[in-house]
Design goal:
By secondary structure, this protein is an alpha+beta fold. It has 3 domains: about 20-125, Lipocalin (Beta Barrel); about 135-275, Fervidobacterium nodosum Rt17-B1 like (Heat Shock Protein 90), CATH 3.30.565.40; about 280-375, Actin, Chain A, domain 4, CATH 3.90.640.20. It has helices spanning about 5-20, 170-185, 195-220, 280, 290-305, 370-375; strands spanning about 30-35, 40-50, 55-65, 70, 75-80, 85-90, 100-105, 105-110, 120-125, 135-145, 155-165, 230-240, 245-255, 260-270, 275, 325-330, 335-340, 350-355. The strands form 3 sheets. An 8-stranded antiparallel beta barrel has the order 1-2-3-5-6-7-8-9. Strand 13 and strand 14 (about 260-270) form a beta hairpin. The radius of gyration is 22 Å and the shape is globular.
């Protein structure tokens, strides 16, 4: 599964649609939803709305037989909000809407259609059980010219979407820890913790100050059209259950040259202790070589590369994929994300390799929160 493979494309599409809209409106939110599709399919979803655009993911599970619970894949969703309450969502890559319904009074109700399956009614309610966090969404978008006196002056543009914990949680100290983890990952070390919207404005000021300073220092040797700069930072909630939180940060930056650069990174947070989990917290020390075998095999499967064709012949930089530290988790498994130029050229974008929990059964540290999650599946 190429989970979040096209996240940056999504970010850029959303950017085009919402730039210039009212940034102080109430049509921005994060919702964690639980409910049913039909009578027996349980579903959990994470949705983020930014004005007319909605994105997120959902996972479904149901009893198979009398005692066995079947867990489906985590599926990425993109869609639109119409007439305020109407939300239409499709699975990423699909042309047709999977969910059609209304979000109103903390509920999402409507009709679910999946490929050729029979249409079913669904009902999901906003729900944050212990071990999950509510969030608020904050947004800022602006631009500044390099020379205010010039009509066609180059400009720098910044767009920021921040998902920050709500104070409504039964353990205030956990909120403080998550605040600081997001602060470091989103803004960088040393940034001052303040009200979320104020932090976006502080970051904006810093960005434009640096832009003007860089342009001043380089103006003697660089054409002016090299100073159309752009910076975007967005966030998604990948997982928010069972005392585990996985946050995705989507970044795009352009500072002259032939193209901009995109980057995906993650925080996995233990909500029982308020601590950030590292690669070493998830996997045993002796897991690297076995993980490499699994990652290489899964990459070949994802891209349908026959064994007789080398990975380099298929356009990658490596013959064997080694585990990196850029991890995410879902209800399905643990994913490794390799950004542009790590194992493949820029044209391929980020390479995502998801290993399901069954394949990782003997590699995850016993007693870690991820081990406990894998045993729930």
């Amino acid at each position: 599964m190429l989970f979040r493979q096209l996240s940056i494309i999504t970010l850029l599409i959303i950017s085009i649609n919402i730039f210039g809209q009212n940034q102080n409106g109430s049509d921005k939110y994060y919702k964690r939803l639980e409910g049913k599709i039909g009578d027996n399919i349980n579903v959990t979803a994470n949705l983020v709305r930014l004005f007319d655009n909605v994105s997120g993911n959902y996972v479904y599970y149901y009893l198979e037989g009398e005692n066995d619970m079947y867990y489906g894949k985590t599926v990425e969703l993109v869609g639109i909000a119409e007439n305020n309450d109407s939300v239409l969502l499709r699975e990423f890559g699909s042309k047709d809407f999977t969910f059609k319904g209304l979000i109103r009074d903390g509920q999402y109700d409507g009709e679910w259609n999946h490929n050729d399956s029979k249409a079913l009614n669904f009902n999901m309610k906003e729900y944050y059980p212990n071990g999950s966090l509510p969030f608020e969404v904050y947004y800022l978008s602006s631009e500044t010219p390099l020379d205010k006196k010039e009509k066609d002056s180059p400009t720098a543009r910044i767009e920021l979407a921040l998902i920050f914990p709500s104070s409504e949680y039964f353990q205030p100290d956990i909120i403080d820890s998550v605040d600081n983890i997001i602060l470091d990952s989103y803004f960088g070390k040393g940034f001052v913790l303040r009200e979320p919207q104020q932090m976006l404005e502080d970051f904006e000021t810093e960005y434009f100050t640096n832009y003007l300073e860089q342009a001043k220092n380089r103006s003697q040797s660089s054409p002016k059209n090299n100073f159309n700069y752009e910076k975007q930072v967005n966030m998604s909630i990948i997982f928010n259950s069972n005392y585990l939180l996985c946050i995705e940060y989507l970044r795009y930056a352009y500072a002259g040259g032939s193209h901009g650069m995109s980057n995906l990174s993650y925080d996995i947070i233990n909500l029982d202790k308020g601590t950030k989990l590292s690669y070493e917290d998830v996997f045993d020390n002796a897991s690297d070589s076995l993980l490499s075998v699994l990652l290489t095999k899964q990459l070949r499967h994802n891209y349908k590369i026959p064994e007789e064709v080398s990975l380099k012949e298929a356009g990658f930089f490596v013959e064997t994929v080694k585990p990196n530290k850029n991890l995410f988790i879902s209800g399905e498994g643990v994913g490794f994300v390799y950004n542009s130029y790590e194992i493949a050229p820029y044209s391929r974008g980020a390479t995502t390799i998801l290993l399901n929990y069954e394949k990782l059964e003997n590699l995850i540290k016993v007693g870690s929160p991820i081990y406990k999650l894998s045993k729930h599946q």
